[in-house]
Amino acid sequence: MFTGSRLTRPLAARVVWTLIAIVSGALFGVKAVQAAVAYVSITASPPAIPANGHTTSTITALVYDTSGFPIPGELVEFRSTLGELTPNAAVTGVDGQVSVQFKVYPLSDPASVEGSAAVVFANTSGVEGSIRVGLFNSPHGAYSRITNACSICHGTHSSYSPRGLKSATDAPVGATPVVASLCFSCHDGTGAISNIKGQYAFLSGNTSFHPVMGTGNPMVNPFLNCTACHNVHGDKKADGTGVYPRLLRQFDLLTGEKVFGGAAFCLACHGPVDRGWGGDPSKPGYYDYYSFTGGDHTALDSVHEIVYAIDPLTGRSIMEPPSGTGIPCLGCHDQHAAKGRWLMNNAEEEACFRCHNSGVLPGSDTLSQFNGANIVSRHDIYGETGAQLECTSCHGPHNVTKTNKVSDPWNTKSLYPYGPGEYSGFCLRCHSANPPREIADSTTVVPYSILWPIWSVTTNLTGYDKDSVWGDSTKATLSSGCALCHAPSSHGSENPNLLNFREDNPVCADCHRSIYSDVDPAALGVSKGDYAYYHPVQDINGAHSNTEGYSDVPSAGRHAECWDCHDVHAANSARVGRSLPGKPGLLAILRNVSGVGVINRGPGTVPDYVYKSSADYEYEVCYKCHSAFSYGASGGPLLSYGQQDDPSVEFNTNNASYHPVEGMGRNPGIAPGSFVVGWDASSVVYCSDCHGSGAGRRGPHGSRNRHILEYPYTAGPGLVDPDEICFKCHQSSVYRDGADEAAPLSRFFGAVTSFSDQGTPEVTRWSLHGRHVSTYGAS
């Protein structure tokens, strides 16, 4: 029999006296005498656990001697009528205590568990203590009449909280008590396997939360109770096999029926009915949760709500969780809290790639289209270039279907009619001067503001804005539109700029084979091999960059590719400004392309250059390569006939004479009859009027003639043919054949007066151009 004073002596004091006895024996060489065990006290925390094989109760044994002091170093053996103890034997510490873990696996007869208990024994030196650990299938429902599980949440006789609950508090809105603290007493990873409290913690790292009241986290907007989604007692299944998974229960306000799982469970709140979560709009703190989450998510044909792809291992849709609730939303969203917005635990693209990869959905493998080994360009869903867009910017995950896989980037709640003739329209929804801006309300969702990569585009004016020029483009009339040149999926490509083919050949030549062709010269015209002189478009590929500078280009970096002169998104086939006085207008085939303007100085001097993001005149496009702006201090490149001249110096309108490229010529009085029809003294000249590929082909792409001239030019003495380049504008009958003998059409003629035998003076007129060119063979 123990005295009351010894049994009630504070445990700390007993521990101190025990330590003194042990230390004294060690110091003075006295062997400590082990007192006899008189009593074993045993406790269980928690006192009841579900028989699920993973929830544990901590069993603690305290061993006393006959004087009421704890005994250290005592081996205690544990056993139980049910379940497993880990370990089943342990030694007491200096405080006389030892703890082990106890759990019980599901029984073959689940119904026999309710209201029963396991007895755990602790034995040492023949003295034994015991404790009953209550068992149940679930602390929430399907109880037997003798269960003790109700006492886990409810006070037996009374409680400080409403409805007899333990640890619940009055709600800030409405009459329903706030139960989060009560739920968290188990759902913190101790009494239940799920640690919901940790997910809602302020330092959890989560940034988005279901708006549960009573979490203590100021980041959470407190509107709902845990009971908004869960019936804490559970709803029995009609077939009698237990309660519905995760104790889920909602009400479909349209039908008035209960919902226990599937997509319809989430749609009970995120469907067509605004349940008014967020309180009274007239009161402070009101938050329009329905609009914030995007309103109605109902889409009956959505591929993410219909069971299309089945996991062969589980027999469930790959979007369904293993819990058996059948809620496909959980394939992308967490139900409580997440590190990303919209309750997404993965970065958005990674959430998509969990399914859209070669292993899970080979027929819809988007991952390899973005991250394949040979991918060199892609839509920047990772934000590596400063861009901002995500998969959901083009694919509204709640409404895309098997036949219509894209949504409207200006409102992803709506599908975009993506079919023949609509490809370009879809791309131009973002590729404009005013791309979509983020918004979320009950009618419109734009998940992210579209931001373009932080690049200084130098090749053309609009950069990523194609909408402002596309309407006047030749390509706008083609039904295939953007997909004619760019990867149809628009996800990624093995070529730059999401192109279907490598640059220049064959992506441009695929349509424009009459300009450059190595395929069938007889059918398609002059092949590149027949061009003695050409811009080296096919010789150098991949050197062009949309951000390159054209100033002071070293010889090793010089190139000419299609993109340097043409913006395929803006170009059309019209000619503009040919016969107007003054400077020639820009050819429409060169619309939107950068160029270099000039501010002329004295005759024969290099002008000041002005870079233009969009050229106004054709010669400005030429000058960005063919001038000292590009040559730099090294001068023009060395060609087979010598160093290339600088045309920006030669066409200087301050020179004494010049071909009228930058402006009208200095000789307005030239006789109209000396020109080919269509030309006169006020005409101005395009570079491409002289430099071209010949009849039937446009542009200075290549020619049999030196300097890429459309027709030959004899630079030395010899016979001058009537098809030479000069005679494209100047009448060959005047300047070659001498047809101006009767009148000074060319203003270069001579006259000799002679006398007849009768003494009559006779005047003989000579066309000096004709005599020099035809008679003397001067070029």
As a whole number of angstroms, the C-alpha radius of gyration is 45 Å
Mean of the pLDDT scores? Answer: 83
Work out the helix count.
Answer: 19
Q: Give the overall silhouette.
A: elongated
- What share of residues is helical? 10-25%
**What is the makeup of the main sheet?**
5 strands, mixed
Q: What is the terminal separation in angstroms?
A: 138 Å
Please give the number of β-strands: 27
Low-confidence stretches: 1-32, 516-527, 577-582
- What is the SS-derived class? alpha+beta
Strand content: 5-15%
Order of neighbouring strands in the sheet with most strands: 2-9-8-4-6
Topology summary:
Elements: H1 4-8, H2 11-28, E1 37-45, E2 48-50, E3 57-65, E4 75-80, E5 84-86, E6 89-91, E7 97-103, E8 117-124, E9 127-136, H3 180-184, H4 196-200, E10 208-209, E11 250-251, E12 258-259, H5 263-270, H6 289-292, E13 337-338, H7 348-353, H8 367-371, E14 377-378, H9 391-394, E15 407-408, E16 411-415, H10 423-428, E17 439-440, E18 445-446, H11 467-470, E19 492-493, H12 521-524, E20 533-534, H13 562-565, E21 595-599, E22 608-612, H14 618-623, H15 628-631, E23 638-639, E24 642-643, H16 647-650, H17 687-690, E25 702-703, H18 732-735, E26 749-755, E27 761-767, H19 768-775
Parallel strand pairs: 2-9
Antiparallel strand pairs: 1-3, 3-7, 4-6, 4-8, 5-7, 8-9, 10-13, 11-12, 14-19, 15-16, 17-18, 20-25, 21-22, 23-24, 26-27
What does this structure look like?
- With 779 residues, this protein is of the alpha+beta class.
- 14% of the residues lie in helices and 15% in strands.
- It has a 5-stranded mixed β-sheet with strand order 2-9-8-4-6, with no helix packed on it.
- The radius of gyration is 45 Å and the shape is elongated.
- It starts with a helix and ends with a helix.
- Residues 1-32, 516-527 and 577-582 have low confidence and may be disordered.
